[in-house]
Amino acid sequence: MTIIEKIIATHCDQPVVRPGDIADVRIDVRIARDFGGASVVKNLIDSGLKVADPSRTWFTFDCNPTGSDQKYAANQQVCRIFARQNQIGVFDIDSGIGTHLAIDKGLALPGDTLVSTDSHANILGAIGCFGQGMGDRDIAAAWARGSVWFKVPESVKITLEGERPHGLAAKDMALNLLRHFGANTLLGYSVEMYGEAVDRLTIDERITISSMGTEMGAIVLFFSPGDEMINWCRQKSGREFVPVYADKDAVYAHEYTLNLNEFTPAVSLPGKPHDVVSVGQVKGIKIDSAFLGSCTNGRMADLRVAARLLKGRKVAPGVVLKIVPATDEIWQQALHEGLIHIFKEAGALVSNAGCAGCASGQVGQNGPGEVTVSTGNRNFSGKQGKGDVYLASPETTIASAIAGFITAADDIPEFPAVFHLVPVPGPEPAAISAEAEKPVVLEGKVWLIMEDNIDTDMIFHNRHLAITEQSEMGRFAFGNLKGWEDFATKSEPGDIIITGRNFGAGSSRQQAVDCFKALGTQAILAQSFGAIYERNAINAGFPVLVYEDLESLGLMQRDRIRLDLSTGRLINLENGRKTDIRPFAGIQMEIYRAGDILRVMQR
Question: How many CB atoms lie within 10 A of CB 26?
Fold first, then answer.
């Protein structure tokens, strides 16, 4: 049998399994991340299921270890509470990437099985463990039963012959394999790696190559553990185990032999990890940023490469270098060895351990038009942001960050490229459109939201601050104000809001004004406004007016009122009662009639 067949046979108590067999496989290590973890919990609770063996079960918060995203923060808290209730281990936001923790902390051993909500769980093949990424429902079933069904895959044997060229990184080896096999030649196969150069690969290098197995379509990419690896795993786990090796007469669907001498430092072109070219073919492409990290290249060896190249150098002007270790233990080791100091002296940003650029919301994302060189495993459009991402080794990534353009580690220029300032001609004077005269007298139905100190987070929560199109802002108005979360669905164009004291306290976010403009709200009346909010509203041409007392009007929810902005006369059209409030100041009327303060400047 092959490695995968032996591991599955052992874990389903069968003497032999063959490709195509369906086996009920015991799972030794069961992991759910902050991405998907809350859904695993929901599936278990909704189905009335319990966790079969909490001692084999963990949460790992690696997608957003900064806790910078509200949805991730909520999911993480759901997982923490469930973990406390069920005695489940949690590797919280200070820990690092879950699959790396499983290896480094000895949770998983050669010959074991592991499942995770991480599509790169097959990284465990680096130590001869069968790791598999699964969906939330699959993981919930594994937690509840302790086993999952699995179809035994066919196996492929790859042998690398020849000597490894000097300067060829493990990531380069993975990219060359991608160039040779593409994204689907190995699809659905279990892959085993052999050869003298393969046997000499370190644990960090094996992790890099196994991690890229997903991009090749492989179920898992196995390395047979040697004596050094076995001793390392025993030391990490404190446990004895029996490693698994393929039989000499194992049957493979395909066998390939490749010559390492033909491998070169390589780069994946944006959009397709398997669209691989040599570094020389893209040398000179100007970059905006570089990223060192991810489950593929956030290991200690990778950080040492970065420090060696960065020592005594600076990141090129205009380039942002982001470095994210895979685990906190690696982070601490880098601190102990002085690497963090080298990174900071060179001008790099160092973040806490985690998945980083591969996970939306954490350091490593890029913006539209931004060109990034990354050590990640994927560069699909939108995966690491909205710019172009070239995948490369740590050597090429750091060399490019120093040079300011894509280049190899042995070809760093003495002086970096810089962004040349190109004079931009001033804009032509904009034609002022003839807008319909804005009404001075407003009529509309009221929303009585009689609360004081409604702050801008209640009006427009900070999790939506990346929205820049005003038309998209309306649906979030009052989305964080208790009791009024559905305001946007009930609001009608032409409505007028009446509220209490200190409306708009807090931050300077313009969205807290523009969300009401997007809904078609005509005006807001308050006993007082936050100072910044009032300025923002006036400068946006949005009517905000101050009143002292409206009790005489006898207002009821959704009464119609008439408001004269110039005189301050306010009438309840339902009962005819009148009062006067503070009218528009001269500057406010001027800006209101123009549309906003920028149109006043145009005039």
Answer: 19
Instruction: Give per-residue burial for 370-399: e unless 16+ CB within 10 Å, then b.
Output: bbbbbbbbbbeeebbbebbbbbbbbbbbbb
Q: What is the pLDDT of residues 272-303, one digit of tens each?
A: 888 999 999 999 999 999 999 888 899 999 99
Token representation of residue 250: 């194992």
Task: Report how far apart, in Å, the C-alpha atoms of 255 and of each of 158, 214, 301, 588 are.
Answer: 6, 19, 31, 78
* HSE-up (13 A, CA, CB side) for residue 391: 36
In degrees rounded to 5, what are phi and psi of residue 334?
-65, -35
Question: Which phi and psi (to 5°) does residue 414 adopt?
Answer: -65, -35
Residue type, 430: A
Contact 297, 171 (CB under 8 A): yes
Q: Where are the beta strands (DSSP E) in 357-468?
A: 371-374, 388-391, 441-449
Nearest C-alpha neighbor of 333 from the set 300, 356, 298, 292:
300
Q: What does the block give as tokens for 397?
A: 């990534």
Residues in the chain: 603
Q: What is the pTM of this model?
A: 0.80
DSSP H or E stretch at residue 278: strand 276-278
Q: All domains of the chain, ordered by start, with CATH?
A: 3-262 (3.30.499.10), 268-411 (3.30.499.10), 441-602 (3.20.19.10)
